[in-house]
Amino acid sequence: MNVFDFDNTIYDGETLVDFILYYVKTDPKIWKYVPKLLYIAFKDKFHLFTVEDAVDAYAGFLEGYYTKQSNNLEEDVKKFWDKNEHKIKPWYEEVRKDDDIIVSGTTDFLLDEIMKRMGIKNYVGSSIDKKTGKFLRLCFLDNKVKIFNELYPDAHIDNFYTDSMNDKAMMDIADHVFFVTGDKIEQIK
């Protein structure tokens, strides 16, 4: 079976960053979170934080902004994907199989809509309590393997596709690994 990371692998960008930028253009209340979110994005890009750091870093935004958007969130997510669905990389459709599994740090409230549109049934992402904004599950770094094994205990990964060494733990349990840079795919294992 093939397993894929989502952000910068199948999707051309970071979903949460793009979603925040979607709000930056439409809601000035989010602007106070932008400096910290940019700092988080920088640290993530250079693999400079742990799962605990990620939970802490996103907590202020999720608890202070996300929970207040819950009334319009489903509609906003649909509008976001209407605008950003074109960022799904064309190569994915060429290799896609019905039993593919997407394992992503992206939050499930963002993944649910795009997975439905793409016809993907097997996926897991980070999960957030809609009332509190606290993480219920963070699908990041070593947690990806733990969550993957809990949800798909009998799955064997023939091919794993990713854009980041943050997914080293997933690489270690796959037979073959493909590193994605833009639309270029290189087998590294």
What's the arrangement of secondary structure elements?
Elements: E1 2-4, H1 15-26, H2 34-45, H3 51-64, H4 73-84, H5 90-95, E2 101-107, H6 108-118, E3 122-128, E4 135-137, H7 142-151, E5 157-162, H8 168-172, E6 174-181, E7 184-187
Please describe what this structure looks like.
- The relative contact order is 0.19.
- The chain is of the alpha/beta class.
- Helices cover 43% and strands 20% of the residues.
- The model has no long low-confidence stretch (mean pLDDT 88).
- It has a 7-stranded mixed sheet.
Summarize the structure.
The protein has helices at 15-26, 34-45, 51-64, 73-84, 90-95, 108-118, 142-151, 168-172; strands spanning 2-4, 101-107, 122-128, 135-137, 157-162, 174-181, 184-187.
List keywords for this structure.
single chain, 189 residues, alpha/beta, seven-stranded mixed beta sheet, 7 strands, 43% helix, 20% strand
Instruction: Return residue spans where pLDDT drops below 50 for at least 5 consecutive residues.
Output: none
Question: How helical, in percent, are the residues?
Answer: 40-55%
pLDDT averaged residue by residue: 88
Order of helices and strands: EHHHHHEHEEHEHEE
Relative strand content: 15-25%
Main beta sheet: strand number and arrangement? 7 strands, mixed
Rounded radius of gyration (Å): 16 Å
How many helices? 8
Which structural class should the secondary elements be placed in?
alpha/beta
For the terminal residues, how far apart are their CA atoms?
16 Å
Order of the strands making up the biggest sheet: 4-3-2-1-5-6-7
